[in-house]
Design goal:
The complex is a heterodimer.
Chain A lengths: L7 H21 L3 E5 L6 H4 L4 E4 L1 H10 L3 H10 L8 H11 L15 E5 L5 H13 L3 E4 L10 H22 L5 H23 L10 H6 L2 H5 L4 H19 L10 E6 L7 H10 L2 E6 H4 L18 H7 L10 H14 L4 E6 L4 H4 L2 H10 L5 E5 L10 H20 L1
Chain B lengths: L1 H12 L4 E4 L6 H6 L3 E4 L11 H4 L8 H11 L8 E5 L3 H16 L6 E4 L12 H19 L5 H27 L4 H10 L5 H16 L8 E7 L5 H9 L2 E8 L3 H4 L9 H10 L14 H12 L4 E6 L3 H16 L4 E6 L7 H18 L3
Parallel strand pairs in B: 1-2, 1-3, 3-4, 5-6, 5-7, 7-8
Helix pairs in contact in B: 4-5, 6-12, 7-8, 7-9, 8-10, 10-15
Classes of the chains: A alpha/beta, B alpha/beta.
The structure holds iron/sulfur cluster (2 copies).
Chain lengths: 413, 372
């Protein structure tokens, strides 16, 4: 796509809008449609001539960010789905219940195949089962063993076998052939884009930081729905160039940056603007987040995990445990400690998220660890990533302000 | 509750190593055959009253099963354990073993953690047989190394026979309860009292109970119903079910029917035994690959037992179960079978009255449905 001289923000809107339009259009013209969990390797679908994919989690995040998260949740609750269930799932089930009404992208086109996995969470397989039963669409489940230590070869082989089974199933169902060269090309675009993403995150090293985590949350979208295509790599190139220039021009999101904070959990989609500006007023900047740092890595470290150029299928399998939730407490601590030191973080906000137990369940222990062992002030706030009803701004900011005071006290000591 | 503590003390006296197994369906026979005593950490409702230790590690929006298991392990009672076993069940349980290990480490009593991954990919989709066999062999190797013990197939088959006997006895008790010779609450009391017993003692105890109730006269059948969920409801709720004119004739409860419902071929090799055990297990939301078989199983169970309605016992915060309730309720309705959902949580004692009201209303719906 021609990027011209527009800013990365506008470019993002343009490519995301186009991605959803293309998805609907190609589906209407007979493409084989797959719904996938966010970290199912999308590059596999690009190995086919006419297979397109939609990502319900990302679509749910967009609904939440555009302010219709609660509207969609309520629809699911009226169908009997408990308010205790993950808000992404409720948004998606609500949205499907009336064929995409209220969705900024008019929902997703009806799938021919649903592909879930249990690496971020196992409940997602149950959520996708809801559609599988209701729509009568086959459900392919990629089983990714959870890991307490670095991923083992036996688990990697098992994952690869399932990727190959997935390819076979799509070939059988769609009548299309999988092309290894197309797949390798897609992996290549993804790798280049991800390397640029990591470069973008590194602008947080600068003092004051060149970015906020809120920027990175927003610019994650291509990683979720546009991997494996030239626009993916182009977008992150533009983002890197633009941010580089801003730093050169001394344009910083929080120029008087006094507190460098770190965020642990999914982005609070319904609060991005409000939270970032209110923090900026306090000269505080959330400069990094586990949620965005894990992209392009492997479990236990937030450093870029480079492709050695050998087997792309193995490479994709190797990164399946990277996304925080698919690995245990010790690996989480290890990766987070590294980035917290690198970014010279003053304080950590643990966003306790009832919707996402897999992300939140280790947080009490992590909080203790970072406070007791690493000496970093921390705070726990309650925020649901997509259901704005489960967030109280005043309570949260009272706690955040207490965190800033604790940072001051530590400095004064 | 005293029975559980008595049983635990008795277990300790055996001086055998005790392995606490996180729910739901651990390979008990392996542990037993190697001279260890496996105990599954469910049914702790009556024993665990405070959650102080658990609350230091787990949020209050974790389910009561996980919180009570954590409390058991992290508090004084956990000091009787010599190891923890866990396999991949839900999102809470996959994180729990490491949280517990860390907590125990901090408390100065670290325990070895044994873990296997049960393949969740549907068998029709991916053949994970070799992978799983390897998991079983690795577990055996780790147990051998850790406890300096050895595995023998003869002892394994002896253990299989014993655990099979226990499952049979539970099935027989369920039938006694269905026929009215035994009240369901008596079945639950026996089930509770058999917890944390060595398998040999379990057989003795359960056989005695079966013989005792066999002699009783069957009581008149009221409206037969099924209960479904992770754990049975608390005893006062079971009493309320009976008082409302309903009789529980079958169950789809993880700690009951799903647990004792299926026994593989007794003479299999260890790896084949567990391939069969998990593959043909009674469908359970925690065994992801069994999802498509669940509704059919429930309908056939309802049909076979002539149950007229279903009481879903929701374990609060258990996503696995809660994602399925709306679909199950809808499909049952289409079949003309009434159902109701009651929710149990850590503080369920406070809500008994509300649960009773729901059960009364449900009993009316079942009564009105009669003859349709
Ligand atoms: S529970 Fe968490 S990981 Fe799972 S779908 Fe929801 S937000 Fe994602
Ligand atoms: S009740 Fe549900 S959430 Fe709780 S441990 Fe069992 S499967 Fe997990």
């Amino acid at each position: 796509m021609e990027t011209g001289k527009i800013g990365a923000g506008k470019h993002l809107t343009r490519i995301i809008t186009k991605a959803y339009m293309d998805l609907h259009e190609r589906a209407a013209n007979g493409a084989f449609v797959v719904w996938i969990a966010i970290n199912v390797p999308a590059e596999i679908f690009l190995g086919f001539e006419n297979v397109v994919y939609g990502v319900p989690e990302s679509h749910a995040a967009m609904n939440a960010a555009k302010g219709v998260g609660v509207t969609q949740c309520v629809k699911a609750e009226q169908l009997g789905y408990s308010m205790d269930l993950c808000s992404y799932a409720r948004i998606d089930i609500g949205c499907v219940s009336d064929h995409g009404k209220d969705s900024p992208s008019f929902g997703l086109p009806k799938p021919d195949l649903i592909v879930s996995n249990n690496n971020n969470c196992s409940l997602l397989t149950k959520w996708f089962d809801v559609h599988h039963r209701q729509m009568g669409v086959p459900h392919f489940l990629i089983d990714v063993p959870f890991c307490y230590q670095p991923q083992k070869e036996k688990d990697r082989e098992y994952i690869v076998r399932q990727f190959k089974d997935l390819i076979r199933v799509i070939e059988e169902m769609s009548g299309q052939k999988f092309h290894m060269d197309r797949f390798c090309q897609a992996v290549d675009y993804s790798i280049q884009g991800v390397a640029l993403w990591k470069k973008f995150l590194e602008f947080a090293d600068h003092k004051p930081s060149g970015i906020t985590a809120f920027d990175s949350f927003v610019h994650m979208a291509p990683f979720l729905i546009l991997r494996g295509v030239p626009a993916f790599e182009e977008h992150y190139r533009l983002l890197v160039e633009e941010t580089e220039q801003r730093i050169a021009d001394c344009v910083f999101p929080v120029p008087e940056e006094k507190y460098r904070l770190f965020w642990d959990n999914i982005a609070p989609w319904h609060q991005l603007r409000k939270m970032s500006s209110r923090l900026a007023e306090l000269n505080a900047n959330i400069v990094g987040a586990t949620y965005t740092s894990c992209i392009g890595t492997k479990e236990g470290s937030f450093d870029l995990f480079p492709f050695d150029g050998t087997d792309p299928m193995h490479f994709l399998a190797r990164t399946q445990n990277a996304y925080i939730c698919p690995h245990g407490l010790e690996l989480r601590k290890q990766a987070m400690a590294g980035v917290v030191r690198k970014l010279k973080i003053d304080g950590i906000i643990f966003a306790c998220n009832r919707s996402c137990k897999p992300y939140s369940i280790t947080q009490m222990d992590q909080q203790k660890h970072f406070f007791n062992q690493e000496g970093i002030p921390t705070v726990m706030i309650e925020v649901d990533h997509a259901d704005a009803r489960k967030y109280n701004e005043e309570n949260s900011f009272l706690r955040i302000e207490a965190l800033l005071e604790a940072i001051d006290a530590k400095r004064a000591a | 509750m005293t029975s559980i503590i008595t049983n635990l003390l008795k277990l300790r006296e055996t001086r055998k190593k005790i392995v606490g197994c996180l729910p739901l369906y651990p390979p008990m026979e392996i542990f037993h055959s190697m001279g260890l005593v496996p105990i599954t950490l469910w049914g702790l409702r009556d024993m665990i009253r405070s959650l102080d230790e658990s609350d230091r590690h787990l949020q209050n929006y974790s389910c009561s099963v996980a919180r009570r298991a954590a409390e058991f392990i992290l508090s004084e009672s956990g000091s009787m354990l010599d190891g923890i076993f866990a396999y991949n069940a839900c999102d809470t349980l996959r994180n729990l073993p490491e949280i517990l290990s860390n907590g125990l480490q901090d408390a100065g009593r670290p325990l070895p953690l044994f873990q296997i991954h049960i393949p969740m990919a549907p068998r029709s989709q991916t053949d994970a047989g070799d992978y799983f066999r390897n998991e079983i062999f690795s577990l055996i190797r780790r147990l051998e190394e850790t406890f300096h013990i050895s595995f023998s197939i003869d002892r394994f088959q002896d253990s299989v026979t014993k655990y099979n006997e226990v499952r049979n006895l539970y099935r027989r008790m369920e039938n006694l309860a269905a026929s009215g010779k035994m009240a369901f609450q008596d079945f639950m009391v026996a089930f509770r009292d058999s917890g944390f017993l060595a398998v040999e003692d379990q057989i003795r105890f359960l056989s005695g109970e079966v013989s005792r109730f066999l002699k009783k006269d069957p009581k008149q059948v009221k409206h037969p119903v099924m209960i479904s969920g992770i754990l049975p409801p608390p005893l006062p709720v079971i009493q309320a079910i009976g008082a409302a004119g309903l009789r529980i004739v079958c169950n789809d409860i993880a700690s009951l029917g799903r647990f004792y419902g299926y026994s593989p071929d007794l003479n299999s090799s260890v790896e084949q035994y567990y391939v069969d055990f998990y593959e043909n297990h009674i469908p359970c939301p925690t065994l992801l690959y069994s999802a498509d078989n669940r509704l059919g199983y429930l309908l056939s169970l309802l049909h076979d037992t002539s149950a007229e309605g279903v009481i879903f016992v929701g374990e609060k915060f258990c996503e696995y179960e809660y994602f399925e309730f709306p679909y199950m309720e809808k499909r049952l309705k289409e079949e003309g079978i009434p159902s109701v959902l009651i929710e149990i949580a850590v503080d369920d004692e406070d809500n008994i009255a509300a649960m009773k009201n729901r059960i009364d209303a449900f009993a009316e719906a079942v009564g009105q449905n009669e003859g349709r």
